[in-house]
Design a protein that fits this description.
With about 200 residues, the protein is α/β, with parallel strands linked by helices. About 35% of the residues lie in helices and about 15% in strands. Keywords: Amino-acid biosynthesis, Branched-chain amino acid biosynthesis, Leucine biosynthesis, Lyase.
Length: about 200
Amino acid sequence: MAYDKFTVLRSTAVPLPTENVDTDQIIPARFLKATEREGFGDNLFRDWRYDVEGNPKKDFVLNDPTYTGKILVAGKNFGSGSSREHAVWAIYDYGFRCVVSSFFADIFKNNCLNIGVLPVTVSAEFAEKLFDAIQADPKTEIEVNLPEQKIKLLSTGEFESFDINEYKKDNMQNGFDDIDYLLNMSSEIDAFAASR
């Protein structure tokens, strides 16, 4: 399934400094029955966003209109736990296109890259600068430049470089998942098959 192309994203951000957020907190297991990717955003952080009666919890950041944007700045060890890709579907469906953390669980990070959410790993020090800047001014913008592999705090100009696999980088810039990548090469595959 193709997703939005990612090149340069400039956006405000939502801060979630909690550490060790696992995929069951991102999307509880009881919401994994659907097979389509749509609709999961409604239940992103469901048990943190809503009480047992379904009322929004005012003290949770996604229910605070002060914070908006397409970037989620998360605490260390984000996406640990089970390997469910539904967690990334929920993040994408909610509207986030980038998650920033000082450490991601490997499977979660790979799921992000397959689904169109850019996981940006930064130093713990830079993560703190981002949290401090967002808290001081929720309208502060962050620029994530995928071609240059840089993340910049626009208010100060401070930036860090980040790593990404070249194949996944190319796919994200084109809005391809692994199947789209192969389909895009269909004429080359056909030509190769014809030559054999």
